Amino acid sequence: MKSQGKAEHKKFLDVLLLEDDPIVQHVHHYMLERLSCRVDSAATGLEALEKLHQKMQMPNTPYDIVFVDLGLPDIAGFEVIKRIHDLKVSQSIESPNIVVLTCYSASEQKSACEALGANHVLQKPVDIQAMRQFLSQFNTTSH
To answer: How far apart are CA 125 and CA 130, in angstroms?
Structure first.
């Protein structure tokens, strides 16, 4: 699926990183910051959904991208994606680009994730060059 492009002409991308493994979360958080993203992190699906809800209460500050790990300790990443779309409908907002981060083959997960509304699937580990290339499609001015 194509990115929605709503992040065009921004200096920074606002992203939410949902990853339960503290080391992987730290590495991806650091990488995204180095690539000119403003990053909020969450370790559980419920924490991520709460951050999304709080962000929606602030005018003109939506997340551009939500990175979702599929294997979470509380609720599955697939359920998080579904709930993001439910929030979109109930709040009448534009949904952020949803990017699934998975250690499984991206091709194995792609169809299921796209059916739920994910825009992209990236296979972990994601190195900085691959992330830079991925983020370049959002046309931020500081890459």
So the answer is: 10
Question: How far is Cα of residue 66 from the mean position of the Cα atoms in its chain?
Answer: 2
Q: What is the pTM of this model?
A: 0.85
**Residue spans per domain, the chain:** 13-138
Q: What is the pLDDT of residues 30-67, one digit of tens each?
A: 999 999 999 999 999 999 999 998 888 787 778 999 99
User: How many Å apart are CA 108 and CA 83, to the nearest integer?
Assistant: 22
Contact by Cβ (8 Å): 67, 16: yes
From the DSSP assignment, how many helices (H) and strands (E) are in the chain? 5, 5
* Amino acid at position 125, single letter: P
**Radius of gyration over every alpha carbon of the chain, rounded to an integer in angstroms:** 14
Helix (H, G, I), strand (E, B) or coil at 2: coil
Pick the CATH number of 13-138 from 3.40.50.300, 1.10.3210.10, 3.60.15.10, 3.40.50.2300: 3.40.50.2300
CA 62, CA 13: separation in Å to the nearest integer? 10
